[in-house]
Amino acid sequence: MQARPLPIGNGVTLDINDTSAKDGVSISFINAYTDRAGAIRTVPGCTEYADTGAGNVPVWSYYSTDLEILVIVAGGRIFTQTAQDGELIEASGATISSSSPPTFTEDADNVFLAADSVIYKLDGAAATAVPNSPLHVTGLAYVGGYLKVKGERVHGAVAGDTHYSDDKANGYSAWETYNNESRPDALMSIVVAYEQIYNIGRTSLEVSYIDGTVPFSVNKNAAQHFGTMAPYSVVFDGESLYYLTEVAKSRKIIQLAGGGSPQIISFPIDVPIEKFERVDDAQGFIMAWAGQNGYAITFPTANAVVDEQYWTGITLFYHLQSRAWIILGQWDAESGTYGPYRGVSFTFVEPWGLRLIGGRDGKLYRLKATDDWDYAYEPEFLHRWRDDGAKEWRNARQVSLGLAGQYAQFPSIRQCGAYRSRQHQFIFSDMTDAGEIFRASIKTGHISHKVPNKKSAAMYRYDVQCGQPEFVLNGVVEQFDILRG
Question: Do 101 and 208 belong to one domain?
């Protein structure tokens, strides 16, 4: 009898045919990731933090560490909070879009925001318009005393240019424009990184900086021929830029590490991205938990089959530590399928120790810490498989994780049938997603242990954390006999 570890793989591999995924190639990780030690863990669930009362609308938030204020936008309404769990104060005086994602920035004195609108300055419980602000602002940044925006001028309606204000000392009251010089095209998104301005057009990226005279000049050596068709996909995490673009006549996601040369990071998910009905409405955000972080991008109108399921909308997450993609999804117990991830945005409020997820239902959630999960029952996970290319899964086996404090557990299951190649799925569920079912799923490729003969699986033994309120799968060892003939 032989004993070998199951080569489970890492992240999703959605650019190859399922039948081509052999030993060591994963198919999909949903709400699960691989840590630096190779253990499989689950993404935290959520618990409700605040209800804006705006109804079933997306929620976005922004926290200013300098001004110690949390700004929440939902359904065209603006709320502020100045203390953890404090009262939400609605700011009056602003007319912003109820459907467009807002854009935020700040100087040393105020938070500014816009959402397909003019720019508003938050002043306590009021929002006042910045004088002569461009219209339909969907991108907003502050650098060196100036406001930079993507919008339209009050007079002349110059769309697609970069607009910049007079300096702070003059109240940002006068506005001028410029366009990308290397390849003039309509501005799609604007980001300030490393004290430079990244002007991302439809087909180009141009970097400008404050030269003290003009006041902005172009860093021609930093220009790239990679623009974006999805302005809200552009995100800066403090180290790298990420966005959806077009490379060699196909859709790709790129990372500009350190703001420099672009690297394609989307190869494992390129095929489904090509199938999505729309990508121009994709929205990106940075998300972090328990020392993990990465780039999430939601496609609200994907309307495509991904990993044997039809997704109306889907969130894909690039996990930086493992450099692998996973899927974030919200389990629908009624339909038995995943839907788009609960969150559309993420905010880290460091002084309060909160990681906040903006939901799609007018509510703000916090990522739930694993050490405060309360198990009043014996948690378990499911292991099921299908053999020799079959599409039907065998009945799942239940594997106990032990009661709280029962650490010295070495769970196993026996008499597991015969096969030539076997595809495995591991499923963990609990009630940690804001009172709803949280469900993580890991699916392997077709495992044969590189032995063509039929094998009889006598036992699966699980190296899994037991007695703790967290699912950690360190590996699975299979004991099997090789059958002759």
Answer: yes
